[in-house]
Records
---
Amino acid sequence: MEIRGLGTLITGGSRGLGAALGSALARRGARVVFVARGAPDLDAVVEEIRAAGGEAHGIVADVGDKNAVYPIAGAAAALVGPIDLLVHNASSLGPTPLPLLLDTACEDLEEVLAVNLVGPFRLSKAIAGSMAVRGRGLVVHVTSDAGVVPYARWGAYGVSKAALDHLGRIWAEELKDAGVKFLTVDPGEMDTAMHAAAMPDADRSALARPENAAARIVEILASAETIASGSRIEASAWRPAA
Ligand SMILES: NC(=O)c1ccc[n+]([C@@H]2O[C@H](COP(=O)([O-])OP(=O)(O)OC[C@H]3O[C@@H](n4cnc5c(N)ncnc54)[C@H](OP(=O)(O)O)[C@@H]3O)[C@@H](O)[C@H]2O)c1
């Protein structure tokens, strides 16, 4: 996939992986729109990209708010034109310290699912139709090994990621003849605010930098034509086809 000129919408772009991925894509000429709730951090990321000569825009919104989804899609298209690449990266852990399932409030599970699963579903619904009309588009679900491995205390988040993984496979099946591809990417453990909130005692020096995970994901995106729609990819293990 040619990155230059790519109309790109990344949820959760004000720090961590989303900011690193948007910056890396903008350096390669993508036209990037970020979504996050906190304006100051979002503005700082956008300004840094612009100062380096890239194109970036910020939309302050909550992807878990159903009333925000169509305004996000409309504003993004108004800023950079049709969205060719949609990255569902924003994510909620729910309350921390992470609770056991028996201690998890149903409302907290609902909040995590609203941000990590229902929000991506709504935003894909708002954007994938126009991708199908144009016969091109790539939607990326950012997932976690917690969606595969049943780690104690990661219940709400893990369930949301498992469902997100399967959502990507079903989207891929339903849109396989429409030119719209869905990939699910596990970035691996990274030194970010989310990781610190979930595992405050972790040895941060042993964690990957989000910039390194972002660089791998950019290579995956650049090779997307060679990857089957519906694939789930571990970024740290991915190698381009020989
Ligand atoms: N860090 C890891 O070790 C790790 C491992 C595996 C997978 N992942 C996945 O990688 C992705 C990025 O994680 P990260 O570690 O970079 O997280 P992070 O540093 O906490 O960043 C999360 C981003 O999402 C935004 N966000 C959160 N809730 C949002 C909402 N409701 N609406 C809009 N934006 C929202 C945050 O900004 P605001 O708070 O201002 O909204 C922030 O920009 C997530 O999908 C995560 O599950 C991370």
---
Amino acid sequence: MDRRDFIKLTVVTGASATLASCGNPEHQLIRFVPDDETTPGVAEIKHSICPLCRGGCGVDVRVMEADAEVVREGKTGVMRMAVAKKLEGNPAHPISQGKLCARGQASIQLTYHPDRIAHPLKRTGPRGSGQFEAITWDAAIAELVSHLDALAAAGDQKALAFLSRPRTGLRGELVAQVLAAFGAAPPITYELFGEDVLRRANLLSFGRDQLPTFDLARTRYLVSFGADFLGTWNSPVAQNAAYGLMRQGRPGVRAKFVQLEARMSQTGANADEWLPVRPGTEGVAALGIAHVMIAAKLRPASAGGRAGALIEGWAAGLPDYTPQRVEQATGISPARLERLAREFAAGEPAAAIIGGAALAHTNGLFQALAVNALNALAGSVGAPGGLTFTPQANLMNANARGRTSPRAVRELATALLSAPKPRVQLLMLDDTNPVFATPSAWRVREAFEKVPVIVSFGQFVDETSALADLILPDHSFLESWVDGMPESGAIVAVASVAAPVMKPLHQTRAMPDVLLEVARKLHKPLGAAVPWQTFDEMLHKAFASLPAPKDGDAWTAAQAQGGWWGEPAAATKAEAADAHQRPAAAAEPRFDGAPNEYPFHFLPYASTQFMDGSTAHLPWLQEMPDPLTSGMWSSWIEINPKTADRLKVATGDVVEIASQHGTLRAPAYVSPGIAPDVVAMPVGQGHQTFTRFASGRGENPVRILAPLSDTETGALAWAATRIKLTRVGGPDGSLVLFGTSMPEHPEYGR
Ligand code: SF4
């Protein structure tokens, strides 16, 4: 027996024992022998990638030695090891440019969260009860292999479904290749605030199935139709950096910025001019601006090329978008519209952005095409200061994995509910929570309960993984090989990659490596179709194909700087076969609920802290005041002061909102930054099962949404629900605003 084996486990006494909860020997922690060398007191900077939104920011991690609480061989103990201490933006990375947003900063808590799943779990109680027992990795993998073998033996490989959030990198590609080799359908990807409508519009307008990048640093006039591009939309860190240059980066030039939206966002609060417009009419406003520009001959009526064809297509309809007609639809006065149009035309280069709620209507595609046409008319497509597309590294065609399949989750739920024998016999889940992030009307939870076997790779028990029979917990991103190919935010192609920055704290395993091991252990192994032993081997082979620096190879260079960036060897052909030059037919938005019974538009919005709710378990983000309301640790319902006066509602009073699909109660927040006929609510709270910090806190507005979708793409029209609102009582103390009603509670740390 060598020294390492001999002192494998020793009981900690003295100072280290203070890490345990008390002096009871049963609670004493075990000190494990370190399995890596560290230099005391010396920090090392390692690269990683923020996993918390599609932006894909490059991260620098400060790593130092420290005592960390770990799980080894089923026992909890303490180990001296190199651990992540602080995250910052990687200064060399083209997206983050040395910056991170608050979510990125808080992402370190994913690793140290006290409610992480520390080892594989097998369900013991009724489904959804949260009763699991710990099992070994050997047992967990053997069980998953046996389920897959049973499907293969029955020739029923299509009964496997894999559901994940969209990923632009090779992790998604690995999943897709394993599924294809097994004979299953491609992975289904779902994201509440997916951008399928805008990608589709860009495909139709410009031949690019991709989100745009705006050269804000050189823009002189910017109009945004609902895009919270400084807070939650697309690539916020890159957009913040460019916005800073747009406003202050050029001596003597400060671009004007106008925001049109029904509820003031963090971005709207920064605008020179904020215009509330009726929900679903942003496209009409864009075409009204275009009308004035064409009627006054402020721009040529043709921009040439595909974009020119687009605007010519619209031109036939433009005479109808007179300022008077635009006023009827949007509420913007003719004088204001004309002034905006003249300023926009004079502000060369000018650009128009659309995003967020403006696209979340039944006519979302029409709205996006209208704004694309305005950009084409302004000559800003592909021009300095305008709209462009980030070149794509597109390793192994993996960018396609970053696209969502908006109809697929709903169709899967419908199919499961309607068939006597569920079409899916085995459902695998990776980093997605559709039970929380889909409307109750889709009945996703009920549908998933019919699936005989559910396997999750979750790091936490959330509403969807709570239904799993087997949980094979993934490493945190800081413990894993990570990669990503951002589709937007830079002027060069970016393929980020990073090695683990620290050893795993718990008995977790990286999902891609587990999948590869399962592929090898199948009764009929997938063999040459999935040729990699490990995920980093796949990354290595893919990155080796990129153009190399003069004095090295691309793989080594990419690891050294946190990724590869430059011009891809071959231009990406993002143009799809069905791209065609046509404007969508003008479409009125449809809303669920009759106006006389449901008088308010309901606007759930991506919260700066929680986005779609997937970061609500991070206590730093719960503690972070909302930038507009200062709300923390709670939900609230935003209403206009006029509406509040009429209904005799004050901030803090409990109100009930009801759609045709459900009701919820939360405290009111009276705000002038919202139109009188609109009621808004941040998404993110209202979890039933999502760690000690998020469970049982606030309400989930997604639950009561109508199952309407954009007519062409099938994307959820999450801004198309009408509601009624009633005051049901005075303050119940649940609204926490910064500096005011701060409750005494251990979880607030005060
Ligand atoms: S924008 Fe924020 S959350 Fe998104 S990747 Fe960057 S740091 Fe992470």
